[in-house]
Amino acid sequence: MKMHDKCEVCGQPMEMEVGFYYGSGYVSYALSVALSVATFIAWWVLIGFSLDDNRIFYWLIANGVALGLLQPVLMRLARAGWLAIFVRYNKNWKERPAEKAERMIKEWQNGW
To answer: Where exactly are the transmembrane stretches of this chain (predicted)?
Structure first.
C-alpha cells in the first residue's frame, strides 16, 4: 500500500527528500526491542524460565510470531515517529500551510 504524498488535512508533505524514511528502520528496531523486552519480562513473571524445560524456546517462538504479526503496525508507528522527529507541529496550520518539500526529485521518487 502506497503512502499518501501529503496529509489530507493540513497538506504537510510526507516525503521530505528521497530516502527520508530509511532512518525509520532504527525507530522500528527500537520498538521491536522494546516489545521483545516487555514480552520477556511478562513471560518471566507469569510463566517463568527454567533450565530443566524448554520454556525459553516457547517464548522465542511466541515473540517471533508476535513481532511478525505486529510488523505492519510497528513500521507505521516507526514512520510516524520518524516524521515527528523532523516535522514540528504548527498550531496555526490553517493560516500557514505547510512548506513544500524542497529536496524532492520526482524522477527518483519510489525508485527503490
So the answer is: 20-44, 56-78
- Reported as a single tens digit per residue, the pLDDT across 2-21 is 667 777 777 777 777 777 77
- Asked whether 96 and 102 are in contact (CB, 8 A), the reply is no
Closest residue by Cα to residue 12 from 22, 4, 2, 1: 4
pLDDT digits (tens, 9 = 90+) for 40-74: 999 999 998 887 888 889 999 999 999 999 999 99
Place of cell 503496525: 73
**27-55 burial: b if 16+ Cβ within 10 Å, else e:** bbeebbeeebeeeeeebeeeeeeeeeeee
